[in-house]
Amino acid sequence: MRNTLYCFLLLLFVSIRTTAQDLPFANDIREFKKMDSISAPPQNAILFIGSSSFTLWKDVADYFPGHTIVNRGFGGSQLTDVIRYSNDIIVPYRPAQVVIYCGENDISSSDAIAATTVVKRFEQLYSIIRNRFPGAGIVYVSMKPSPSRKKFMPKMVEANARIRHFLQGKRNTAFIDVYSKMLDRNGEPLKDIYLDDSLHMNAKGYAIWQKEIKPYLLKQ
To answer: Starting from the edge strand earliest in sequence, which strands make up the sheet with 46-50, in order?
Structure first.
């Protein structure tokens, strides 16, 4: 009987551990925790969360001197992933302000994903942050017009507009429009601000983001 119970508990432990390991982006989260164990990040900083456009912005702190920034973006993530790991990538840092870039991967993941679905996911993330940190600033950076995802642009425009509308009137929030700043005179995505994959940005693209984001960052 005792051996049977032991085997059951062992199998349960292995099952739980395997399930945790199989969760999307579990390795990214473990890496964040490892980094934090080596060097504890500052509390009350400006926290950047979201997908690869933040992940690849390795020198983001250099773009915003005078601001204390913690970057916890992980590439390929959707809003559902940020929500899933909110206790790991938001709560421990007790941020004074949260800057979000996410939603583009949600829309491009499937033709069946509607703009309203993305907005509802954002609203859920907003509620998590606001309920946990009532005084924190919440900033949403609009989805960008990636050339490789041109067919999804109408949905992104709709979702951006709906998120902007949602944030209007909400205290201590901001919506930053980078989408329109990344289009040429004909309304087409600028080509020279992207890497060869036509999805991720080069320094020119991040310079645009710097200009648009800087006025909204919390003064520290």
So the answer is: 69-73, 46-50, 97-101, 137-141, 173-176
